[in-house]
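Exercise (ungraded).
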Amino acid sequence: MKTKILFVLCATIVIASCATVATGPKAPTDTEIVEALKSSFKETATAKIDRLDQSELQRACSIAAEIGKDLDPKVRESLQAKALAGVKYPADNKYLGDWKRGESIAQSGRGLQFSDAANTVAGGNCYACHQIDKAEISHGNIGPTLWNYGKLRGGSEPILKYTWARIWNSHAFNACANMPRFGDAGILTEAQMKDVMALLLDPESPVNK
Amino acid sequence: MKRFIAAALALCALPLAAQQDAQKEIERYRQLLADGNPAELLEMRGEGLWKQKRGPKNVSLEQCDLGIGAGKIEGAYAQLPRYFADVDRVMDAESRIVHCQMSLQGFTREELTRRPYSLTQGERQTDHEALTAYVVGLSRGVKVALPQGHPKEKESYLRGEKMFFYKGGPYDFACSTCHGVDGQRIRLQDLPNFQKPDNAQRAFTTWPAYRVSQGAMRTMQWRLYDCFRQQRFPELAFLSQASVDLITYMGVKAQGGTMDSPAIKR
């Protein structure tokens, strides 16, 4: 009896001392991260705090990037299928606008920043990530070159539709692609989309010379 | 001079039109270097402010504890962010400078955080920028060595890591979108990949920096503020948790690099 009490007593002491020693770093939970982020930003007229609420895709792709692993193939397919199903093609079935206007849209990095006024016309900032017209040497390399895009691929219906869907929501083809959803997220209007399409696909565009 | 040679070498690698642009830029660099780094003037102003009796309590900042003991500034920046027992949390250099102005001099948080950066072109640099320039300048040549022994220091790093990869907003961007791959550029600007120690070191040790394009010295918290703007997130709050945690994350990735700030940048 006595030894039993002693044993319980000892066990309690051991457990208690373990508990006080075990105050190492705690890995943050997802909720803690979202709360820490939300408390770190101020809303402006155009950029609200709800921008920090992740979509299913944003969350899956953040985790994949952090652990340096590809998405589970099933998750990837389902995210891509959802993105493709959301693409809205032009109602009048006309895909190409004015390549000259397309060039200035591709140059402009304006829009959707917290400092932008609500009536700012957003650009596509395509040159930040892509080579497009070779004459513009100030271009980034996060995306592939689009020089001679139309010349190399032609202007068939499948190419028009693929390119439109790519620009509307690039995640339809690669769930975690690092390219904004220009149509899906409402960054560009349908008319602006047609203009950048023309920049890439119109045979008259300098891109296809 | 070393910086000038590096800039000149980079110039040779560019096509002609870019070379002409870059040529102008380098001319400006050359002039600036001949006159010395303009951030040195700001460091001097910061030193004056640091030593001057100011605020409701009319004392100087000379007894400020930046983590290595009250009154010690040399090398302090290279060990920040770190845990401070008096506030029971992790602070970066900018947060700690504000903390000292509040606790020693009696300034209110409100007045210190109202306008930390001089955002408009030609605006006089703020006291915060001057004080930060002075503090970081006294870590030149010192190796980055953020302490990670306290659980809260480790937790700050772990949060910073999550935040670095956190995609959100209308563009689906995270820091890692632009700073996670080798050799990436936005337009002509090289983007450091923070998973590579040499990249992380180069980036961390050269901030705060005097930016030629803006004619002003910018702090590390401003750098994050501006990258979050490009990321299409809302407006990053000065002294916020995300600012401190991301600086901890980048600092740990840059351990062992040699501080060389305020540097001169594009």
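Further reading is listed at the end of the chapter. For now, observe: Residues 2-21 of chain A form the longest helix (20 residues). Confidence is low (pLDDT under 50) at residues 5-21 of chain A.
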